[in-house]
Amino acid sequence: MDSQKSKVQGKLRKGVFFPAAGALVIFIGLVAAFPDKAYEVLTGLLYKMGGSCGWAIELLIFFVFVGGLILACTKYGNIRIGGDNAKPHYSMWSWITMSICGAIGTGIIFWALGEPIYQYMGPASSAGVEPGSEAAATWAVSQTMFHWSFEQFAFYSVPAIVLGLLLYNFKKHVSYDPVADLAIGRHNRGLGNVFHFIIVFGMCAGVACSMGVGLMQIGSGIEYLSGLTSGRGLWLILAAIVTFIFVLSCVSGIEKGLKRMSSFTSYAFIFLLVAILILGPTAFILNMSTESLGAMLSEMPKRTMITNAMFPGDNWASDWWLQYVGSFIVYGPIIGVFLARIAYGRTVRQFILVNTFVSGGFCAVWCGIFGSMAVYLQSTGTFDVWAAVQESGMASTVYQLLDSLPFGKILIVVFIVTVCTSFCTIADPASSALANITVKGSSIEDEPPKKIKMLYGIFMGALAYALIASGGQDSVKSIWIIVGVPMTVIILALCISTIKSLAYLQKKKEANDPNIDFEDMLRVSGEKEEKE
């Protein structure tokens, strides 16, 4: 029996990987072959789905955020991932840096400077502010802070609680099969396979899209500094280098790879924050950031649920907030596996509060400082950021913004390096987590096979290059909301399973019963549902 089990362990779940990979290659191939038509079709789908389903998605993220706060304040918050006697594997610093860097990617680095200008000059109609006005400036910075802070990280952490409990408390393999079983109250391999298919498809496309943006950012920076033309040739070289770095980190394991890279990236983040604060308009940045933080906190429910219902011609919600929420949904199931994996020994309360407020708070500060600087340059006439965006694009404008400061060239070099390592810190856990869930019999204590992690890393790197080389990058951005809508089923299953598992463990704890068994939890859960 053991020999048969050992033969199965470590084998790729071909019924999940190949259908998802094949569908993804076909999808990206069509986008590459017909970029204009793909953009038209996918953008049309985005706006239709945003108009019809946007309200439900916005309510979902709000209730997940509020539900997480409630859980953290109740007795369930005392339940410890790994059991009552579990001791954390990682120090608080290592845990926080890996949690932040493993969930940020390249988006916040780029859009903390870029988004405020778009929001400043083109706010949502329902915001009721004039483009380019004083009120629009506060709206722009506060909305950017909101998009990249607390609700995003709550959406990554709250549904992931059950993954940590299943992996460590119930000793289950790394798989979404137990989540499917627990959500519907009985064994159902078919639903688990559907979950895995959607996750692999969505996550590979999402990472490829993020990597594509990162490659263009790095390419624009090199072009700005050296004069080399940023195009397919440079992107290919950069894709090979970045893929090599994050695959090397991934196969090195968390201790030797991700832990060190996350720590380095965190120091780079801090350096850039301090440099911008000191070298930029310090007083204005502090004042604008404080005012914007107050505006964001006082209006969180309102900002979560912007639909522009009275402005049917304004697609702001679909172009901005709904696409962000869609990316949270797509990334959530895989980032959840990673966050759960490094959370051994932490209580549910610590897991929610650290991931939501420490990670989210860091991102809010980052957006406040960078966004305030961008608004200052535009509003004072020091640098016409909006004109530069229209003329040369946001990627190039970011480097012009940095170069307007003292020691600008040094800041640009650090910025480029940070973009690279920041992407690696999300691609590394993504590759590892995807390998985990598509490998048979994978235990949380074991690193998945290196060859499978390499397979995912190379696959995503190749997809990223194919996207930007074909000009299909803008089309695939719509995948966030298009894939995000069906993936909400997985998020709901995670939330239901989190509640059931916490209730079961709390009942066992109150009865001083150390016998924790997944099959028993399924039985108890099924009996409760039948009574109801």
Automatic annotation (TrEMBL):
GO cellular component assignments: plasma membrane
Intracellular or extracellular location(s): Cell membrane
Topological type in the membrane: Multi-pass membrane protein
Nucleus listed as a keyword: no
Keyword GTP-binding applies: no
Pfam families from the UniProt entry: BCCT
Taxonomy, superkingdom: Bacteria
Transmembrane segments: 12-34, 54-72, 93-113, 153-170, 191-213, 233-254, 266-286, 320-340, 352-377, 410-434, 454-472, 478-499
GO molecular-function term, one example from the UniProt record: transmembrane transporter activity
Broad class of the protein's primary localization: membrane
InterPro entries from the UniProt entry: BCCT_transptr
Family: Belongs to the BCCT transporter (TC 2.A.15) family.
Name of the protein in question: BCCT family transporter
